[in-house]
Design goal:
Two copies of one chain form a homodimer.
Chain A: E1 3-10, E2 13-20, E3 23-27, E4 29-32, H1 44-49, E5 55-58, H2 59-64, H3 68-73, H4 77-81, E6 87-90, H5 93-99, E7 103-105, E8 110-113, E9 120-123, H6 125-135, E10 139-141, H7 153-173, E11 180-182, E12 184-185, H8 191-202, E13 209-211, H9 220-230, E14 240-242, H10 248-255, E15 261-264, H11 266-272, E16 275-278, E17 281-284, H12 311-319, H13 323-349, H14 353-363
Parallel strand pairs in A: 4-15, 5-6, 6-10, 10-11, 12-13, 13-14, 14-15
Antiparallel strand pairs in A: 1-2, 2-3, 7-8, 8-9, 16-17
Helix pairs in contact in A: 6-7, 7-8, 8-9, 10-13, 11-13, 12-13, 13-14
């Protein structure tokens, strides 16, 4: 049901195919975030039109509302949200640790308060798997403890070791055979811990491996260093997924370091703030220059936004806070990243990835660091 | 360029075709409101999919932002908003009189404050036409004074007489020959004034006539009475447009009284408040009954919302305030009204309009009156 085929490499960049029960995913790939069972503002048809292969859903948000029971009863996440291509769900670990200040971490699991009604909720590795089995994604994630940046090595090591014990409980708790479970390498920004964690996760019988905890803050150099340390320790035959990264430059730099899968809220979030990408970098549509701009957001872009509407019209929609504006920018930004991944895949196949990467990085002005 | 053909009648109900330079409109028709150059949440492709023949744009909103100059420079409203079918623009009169408390009405025109930046703006019949010529709609409206409900007959008569003088200035100010100008019958809820106004407007050389000022408040009976008085005085060969009406029951009752065109924000506004229509009336999607409802919003509905999504999923989106939810309900509500108009047109052609009207009114529970 789940299979990864590595077709070719170009330097350390890898070109592969993931096969799931909902179809194939060509890698390297970017996965748009459908946090609450919808990629904000767009519908499944638009996602298909832009060539989206796989979506990410958030266990944390969906467990709070509407709950795993309901989605299971409705036939699972795919059917419920009208998306028949692959889905990956995260375990909720990242949100529990990043969105909540009030929490109690114990060996058994984590206690936190619902941000919706203040209810006390206890999430364990077993419960995270149970909910993900109810949601029914093709790829599910182990429940991990994502230590915050700035904590010391002792704290980070404890969190990492607990994550190791938890992943074994996740594997044991898993009952569905049609879902692929990925463990998550932790260890903060301490190379020695990352090595231990990578070796531990590599030793497990899982069809893929993720690297977590690198997208926190604005630590681009540290993120690259972590991947440099971890990647050589990962089995070549398994897909590698770096969580929470979606800045174009980072995608290039991590594909160059042997990573196959990415997700990030940045294309959709930027869109809702009136920001879009083109080959030169980020732009703010409310800039007065766009008022009379008859051209599309990006010349030669084939997305359904650029094919139909001028920058002038989209600027007006954003100024007026019209929902269609947010949607049109979301379509463009997601298409931009998905198209970038298509170009990256072709370049790897033709063994010219480094040339493409250099060309892109030279042209693209990255006004921001990290994943914001 | 502009032509109205009356094909057949069934009682007083009329089945016609309006021909414009952007194509034909089958009547009776409902026109969705694209207030700020977008029908809120949906795109032109979706409007075409649901069989939308003509949109309404608002001169008042567009003159304030981005301004008629910009839209003219960008090639006109059709090109700018990516809509190649007919458009009707109102004159701004209704908004000036309904949205503003601080105003000065003089013979020359109306002074009001922009709700955006407080600027003093002076709108005259000539200026309203000038802006509508810049926008470039197929049908444009005369600048009128829409007297509020509750004022006495003297006030209403003065407003009506000014409207009569203003429509003559509008006709004189008009320079484009490819736009049809419709005057607006006023006179409040005073039958004797309505008669005077209807006779005056009927005597003008215009290709169509509108009835304004009937959608204010919750005065369904009064609205019907006004139309009863006015309609017999209107030339049979001209299309008649009742402004601001979109409640399903009202559409039936006014088609039955010989009206051909309607517009209203109600389908889109209800959607944004989580309300949808089916043949039984209005429903609130956040109702707990829909939580596990696997069926679409309306059985046998062929709209792209009902074809793809369950009520359960849409309820979740609305509860989470997800934009896709507002969009899916908007699509359904607009489709519902447009489909109703298709059924009405077929029924008139087949001389069974009264049977359809009775059947609909018996089934449809109208919990609300007026146009809300």
């Amino acid at each position: 049901m789940f299979q990864f085929t590595l077709h070719t490499t170009d330097g350390r960049a890898r070109r592969g195919t993931l096969t799931t029960r909902h179809g194939e995913i060509q890698t390297p790939c970017f996965m748009p975030c459908g946090t609450k069972a919808t990629v904000k503002t767009v519908d499944p048809e638009e996602l298909k039109q832009m060539g989206c292969q796989i979506l990410l859903g958030n266990t944390y948000h969906l467990m709070l509302r509407p709950g795993g029971d309901l989605i299971e009863k409705m036939g699972g996440l795919h059917k419920w949200m009208g998306w028949d291509r692959p889905i990956l769900t995260d375990s909720g670990g990242f949100q529990v640790f990043s969105l909540h200040k009030i929490r109690k971490i114990a060996e058994d699991g984590v206690e936190f308060q619902s941000h919706i009604n203040g209810d006390k909720i206890f999430l364990t590795p077993e419960r995270a798997i149970e909910i993900q089995e109810q949601l029914g994604a093709d790829i599910i994630m182990a429940f991990d403890e994502c230590a915050p940046t700035g904590v010391d090595m002792t704290y980070t090591k404890e969190a990492m070791e607990r994550t190791h014990r938890w992943v074994e409980r996740c594997l044991k708790a898993k009952t569905r055979t049609d879902q692929a479970l990925f463990p998550i390498v932790q260890g903060g920004f301490f190379p020695e811990l990352r090595k231990i964690s990578a070796e531990f996760m590599a030793g497990l019988d899982t069809p893929g491996i993720a690297i977590g905890g690198v997208s926190v803050g604005e630590l681009r150099e540290e993120m690259h260093e972590v991947v440099e340390v971890v990647e050589p320790l990962l089995p070549k035959e398994k897909p590698r997924y770096v969580m929470g990264v979606g800045e174009p430059i980072d995608l290039f730099n991590l594909v160059a370091r042997g990573i196959d899968m990415f997700d990030c809220v940045i294309p959709t979030r930027l869109a809702r703030h009136g920001t879009f990408w083109d080959q030169y970098g980020r732009h703010t549509i409310t800039n007065a220059d766009y008022r009379t701009q008859e051209n599309p957001l990006q010349k030669n872009c084939v997305c359904t936004t650029c094919q139909r509407f001028s920058a002038s019209y989209i600027r007006h929609l954003i100024v007026e806070n019209e929902i269609l504006g947010h949607r049109l920018l979301t379509i463009h930004n997601l298409h931009f990243l998905l198209e970038l991944m298509r170009q990256i895949r072709s370049a790897i196949e033709e063994h010219r990835f480094e040339a493409l990467r250099n060309e892109f990085i030279t042209t693209f002005h990255n006004g921001q660091t990290g994943t914001n």
